[in-house]
Design brief:
5-stranded antiparallel sheet, single chain, alpha+beta, globular
Length: about 120
């Protein structure tokens, strides 16, 4: 999401918070340099590797347990989606969060993530 248009950013978070809670992760796909999390047809493509806040640790993509812990979220229900100028956060009912930096310094593309559903595409 582009940081210079705060209204679009907040509208995007509102759309995602209206659509994602109650959905469960169906699959986690590790592509060479990005991550796709699928929620039964709705997906988030993370172009910035997100942090994984577990109940015990904060893991990044270089941590040995990162991929296993992400895969453990398959079948877990989304509780809320939120965000601000710094982070986009998907919080699950088990207390785990996927937290994506929206900082320009962390990006390799203009977008930090792409959210795609049957009705919307938010970047």
């Amino acid at each position: 999401m582009e940081k210079d248009n705060d209204n679009d950013t907040m509208n995007g978070f509102a759309i995602m918070n209206a659509e994602l809670p109650g959905n469960r992760i169906a699959s986690v796909m590790f592509i060479m340099d990005y991550l796709i999390v699928d929620f039964d047809g709705t997906s988030i493509s993370y172009l910035v590797w997100p942090l994984l806040d577990t109940t015990e640790d904060c893991l990044n993509e270089k941590d040995v347990r990162y991929r296993d812990e992400l895969c453990k979220l398959i079948g877990v229900e989304v509780e809320t989606v939120s965000g601000d100028a710094d982070f986009f956060v998907v919080r699950f009912k088990n207390g785990v969060c996927i937290r994506c930096s929206l900082q320009w310094a962390d990006r390799v593309t203009p977008e930090a993530f792409v959210y795609t559903s049957r009705n919307h595409c938010v970047v």
